[in-house]
């Protein structure tokens, strides 16, 4: 850039003092407007003849100066201590400790009658004989009561009453006799639960234990019963105490029944298979219980077969082991 050019034409100084030149110059107001009769000018119909107020000028804010700040003298307030609470006066009775100690040192005096000074009356012979006679009569009466009690049979409670059992049905026999049906009962599975769908949502249903009820036809005396194939096989949730009557309900009228207490030689897995294959309305928990019972019974039978039978010699017959 040439040095002969004036400063006004120097482009490097074009923005010098730009802010001051662009800011408008603050000019003081020429005259403050008079607004004292503004209400009368806006509402001339409500204008009254009241005296006109002295005109006043609106003043805008002005900057504060140091002289506007006034120091306030610090006032010290004296703190008043709270009044102490007044305690009520207590009037306790006067205790003479010396008198109390002296009273405790005294030994109490007891006025006992002199019994030894009074002689006891001597009983007469008649009184002694009467006393002995009364004692003898009382002893004889007690012996008589014992003899009478020994002569009466001692009462014994009924066995069914002790075990809270109901009386046996007259058609249910306590021992087998010719012409009686033979029954057997075996629990298949214990109480179980099942999830079911109800109108209000899923729910848990609990079922009681189930038992197999088996019946065999009567046989004559001396004729061996055929215990492998039962005449009737039924799966029921009847309680144990009611199983005999449930078997009796499956028999014809007036038929006699004998229920085996410790049944042996019964193929329970076969009986469960009969119910499993011929009962179409079994539920899932019943099907699962029967299948688990059959598997457990087959395993028990296989263990018995393996432990109780053996071949005496190679090529010989399989015989039952002799056990002590």
What is the mean pLDDT? 79
- In DSSP terms (H or I, runs of 4 or more residues), the helix count works out at 8
Strand adjacency order, main sheet: 1-7-2-5-6
User: Could you describe the largest sheet, including whether it forms a barrel?
Assistant: 5 strands, mixed
Question: Spans with pLDDT under 50 lasting ≥5 residues?
Answer: none
What order do the SSEs take from the amino end to the carboxyl end, as H and E? HHHHHEEEEEEHEHHEE
Shape: flat
Structural class determined from secondary elements: alpha/beta
Terminal CA distance reads 137 Å
Radius of gyration, whole Å: 62 Å
Percent of sequence in beta strands? 5-15%
Structure explained in plain terms:
The protein is α/β, with parallel strands linked by helices and 324 residues long. A hairpin with a 6-residue loop joins β8 (309-311) and β9. It is flat. The chain has a domain at 178-319. 29% of the residues lie in helices and 14% in strands. α7 packs antiparallel against α8 (284-308). The longest helix is centred in the middle third of the chain and has 27 residues, at 125-151. It has a five-stranded mixed β-sheet with strand order 1-7-2-5-6, sandwiched between helices. The chain has a two-stranded antiparallel ribbon with strand order 3-4. A two-stranded antiparallel sheet has the order 8-9.
